[in-house]
């Protein structure tokens, strides 16, 4: 498939799903109500539009960072969760709730961002000038486990059941009731982070041949590592800071699209961003339609969708190494 | 443009691997680097490629310090074919060869007419035209070796540094690759190869650098460097020298040197 056809098709899909996300919900709002003095317009403008914008931006950030991390680590199983950025951001937010006793959007966001970026800088330090991607993955896994353990610890010392409920509610990941305040907070960071990640394309292509060959082609891998770490920290940190943990998008999307791009890592970046946006918009619209008074959590739905996919991926990988 | 090292010492981690190497490598010739395992051959080639920084001494390209060159500028002049033949994603052969143009391309720029011409020439030189649309995983070992060589040639370097390019190739493909490298040297390119096979080195190399424990045992024309005494000193082997039908002298290892 040509690049233009693929990216054009995905962009169209994103546009349709964005419109669908404005329509879908417990109250169905048809397009005819959008541009008229219909009272349902308020639902669109105040509730669904910020939610759709966040879904688009966060899906793109997750898909793109997954594609970049898989290319950088030359590992189809890599995603933002593997390098610890998601659990670090979650730790920051939980710390804000438990230690500062605040769940104001600005405080939550600031703490989550600080923790995400801090852990990514720590990761860069731990893996600095390491010869292989293994050091990076190991350091990331350690950070992810540390983040999860500290989060559990904070939950166990939470001052009251309300705080515990709030934490659990937040960790599960959702776009419910997000407003323009969250959009304003997250969008600039996601945009800058994605910008940095898009700069890595050349280096990712060169890394296809291994680190020695990449450096012999004139690439500064230290610079690439910095772009990857900062870009992921900003884009995924800001995403997790407003939604909680939404996993698997960064894993699934690049993997599905790779065969359509001729497996070239640089050609996979834009499609993965678009595909991530499409997947998150679709999933967020679907969870709203779930029966019952409340919604299925987006993070939970993604995990339910992602786990079987992960198994199939592993089986396929094992089969290809056996043959 | 000459590639030269003077009083070169290189360490990997805390271990000193190369000690006081002096050599002037000339373009238009094939220089083979030989020595026992662990003698520092790969380290020397990686230092020549600018991938390792020397502790002391210098690497110069045409009189200029290699370390002073901007990495992309260096990459345009020196092509490096690593020993590792892993290709991490299943690319199309033509896309893989195109990676060799990275040092010449501006960020986000597509392939220019010049790029495409260089890629075509590289594909022609290595005779991989029929493979261009195949995936890397569908290649045999010999085909893959030629494709990886084409990647380096697409960058049109003045120097080609190849680390054990013959490893895991059968005799026919070894001879084929060596002939191609000789052909490249005949066009004026400087070719440096790490080899293990004394006979292949004698066939293919104009100059030979013999290493042992990170020090130079001999450096000079193949006939003098691949003689009885230098090989005894470098490898601890006795050789029988036989002549081939083109009058070349080939050293064949026949046993270990007895230590008195």
Automatic annotation (TrEMBL), chain A:
Protein family per UniProt: Belongs to the binding-protein-dependent transport system permease family. FecCD subfamily.
Subcellular location: Cell membrane
Domain of life of the source: Bacteria
Main location per the UniProt record: membrane
Bilayer topology term: Multi-pass membrane protein
GO cellular component entries: plasma membrane
TM region positions: 48-69, 81-100, 106-128, 135-158, 185-205, 226-253, 298-317
Organism of origin: Sphingomonas trueperi
Name under which the protein is recorded: Iron complex transport system permease protein
GO terms, molecular function: transmembrane transporter activity
Xref: PANTHER family: ABC TRANSPORTER PERMEASE PROTEIN MJ0876-RELATED, FERRIC ENTEROBACTIN TRANSPORT SYSTEM PERMEASE PROTEIN
Keywords: Cell membrane, Membrane, Transmembrane, Transmembrane helix, Transport
Any one of the GO BP annotations: siderophore-iron import into cell
From TrEMBL, chain B:
Keyword hit for Cell membrane: no
Record InterPro entries: AAA+_ATPase, ABC_transporter-like_ATP-bd, ABC_transporter-like_CS, P-loop_NTPase
Entry's Gene Ontology molecular function annotations: ATP binding; ATP hydrolysis activity
Keywords: ATP-binding, Nucleotide-binding, Translocase, Transport
Pfam families: ABC_tran (PF00005)
Residues in ABC transporter domain copies: 3-238
SMART domains: AAA
The UniProt record lists the keyword Transcription: no
Coiled coil regions, renumbered to chain: none
Protein family per UniProt: Belongs to the ABC transporter superfamily.
Cited function: Part of the ABC transporter complex HmuTUV involved in hemin import. Responsible for energy coupling to the transport system.
PANTHER family given in the database record: HEMIN IMPORT ATP-BINDING PROTEIN HMUV
Protein name: Iron complex transport system ATP-binding protein
């Amino acid at each position: 498939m040509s690049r233009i056809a693929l990216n054009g098709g995905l962009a169209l899909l994103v546009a349709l799903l964005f419109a669908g996300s404005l329509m879908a919900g417990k109250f169905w709002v048809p397009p005819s109500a959008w541009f008229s003095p219909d009272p349902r317009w308020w639902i669109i403008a105040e509730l669904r539009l910020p939610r759709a914008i966040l879904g688009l931006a966060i899906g793109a950030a997750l898909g793109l960072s997954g594609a970049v991390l898989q290319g950088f680590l030359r590992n189809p199983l890599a995603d933002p969760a593997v390098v610890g950025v998601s659990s670090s951001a979650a730790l920051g937010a939980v710390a804000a709730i438990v230690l500062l006793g605040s769940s104001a959007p600005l405080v939550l966001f600031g703490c989550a961002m600080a923790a995400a970026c801090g852990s990514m800088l720590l990761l860069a330090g731990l893996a600095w000038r390491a010869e292989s991607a293994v050091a990076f993955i190991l350091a990331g896994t350690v950070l992810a486990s540390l983040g999860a353990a500290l989060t559990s610890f904070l939950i166990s010392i939470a001052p009251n059941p309300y705080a515990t409920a709030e934490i659990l509610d937040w960790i599960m990941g959702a776009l419910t009731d997000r407003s323009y305040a969250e959009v304003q907070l997250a969008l600039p960071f996601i945009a800058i982070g994605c910008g940095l990640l898009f700069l890595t394309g050349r280096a990712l292509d060169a890394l296809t041949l291994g680190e020695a060959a990449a450096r012999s082609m004139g690439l500064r891998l230290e610079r690439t590592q910095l772009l990857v770490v900062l870009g992921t920290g900003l884009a995924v940190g800001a995403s997790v800071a407003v939604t909680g943990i939404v996993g698997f998008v960064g894993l699934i999307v690049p993997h599905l699209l790779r065969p359509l791009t001729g497996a070239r890592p640089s050609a996979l970046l834009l499609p993965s961003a678009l595909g991530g946006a499409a997947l998150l918009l679709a999933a967020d619209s679907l969870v709203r339609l779930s029966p019952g008074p409340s919604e299925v959590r987006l993070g939970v739905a993604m995990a339910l969708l992602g786990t079987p996919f992960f198994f199939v991926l592993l089986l396929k990988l094992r089969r290809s190494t056996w043959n | 443009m000459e590639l030269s090292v003077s009083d070169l010492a290189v360490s990997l981690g805390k271990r000193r691997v190369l000690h006081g190497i002096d050599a002037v490598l000339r373009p238009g010739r094939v220089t083979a680097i030989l020595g026992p395992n662990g003698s520092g051959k790969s380290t020397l080639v990686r230092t020549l490629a600018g991938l390792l920084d020397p502790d002391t001494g210098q690497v110069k390209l045409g009189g200029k310090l290699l370390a002073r060159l901007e990495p992309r500028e260096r990459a345009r002049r020196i092509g490096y074919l690593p020993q590792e033949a892993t290709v991490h994603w299943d690319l199309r052969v033509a896309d893989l060869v195109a990676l060799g143009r990275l040092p010449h391309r501006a960020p986000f720029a597509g392939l220019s007419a010049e790029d495409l011409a260089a890629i075509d020439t590289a594909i022609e030189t290595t005779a991989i035209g029929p493979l261009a649309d195949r995936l890397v995983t569908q290649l045999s070992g010999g085909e893959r070796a030629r494709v990886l060589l084409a990647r380096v040639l697409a960058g049109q370097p003045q120097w080609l540094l190849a680390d054990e390019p013959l490893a895991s190739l059968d005799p026919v493909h070894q001879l084929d690759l060596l002939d191609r490298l000789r052909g490249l040297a005949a066009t004026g390119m400087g070719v440096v190869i790490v080899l293990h096979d004394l006979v292949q080195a004698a066939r293919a190399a104009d100059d030979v650098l013999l290493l042992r424990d990170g020090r130079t045992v001999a450096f000079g024309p193949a006939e003098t460097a691949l003689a009885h005494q230098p090989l005894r000193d470098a490898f601890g082997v006795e050789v029988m020298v036989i002549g081939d039908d083109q009058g070349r002298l080939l050293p064949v290892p026949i046993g270990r040197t007895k230590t008195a």
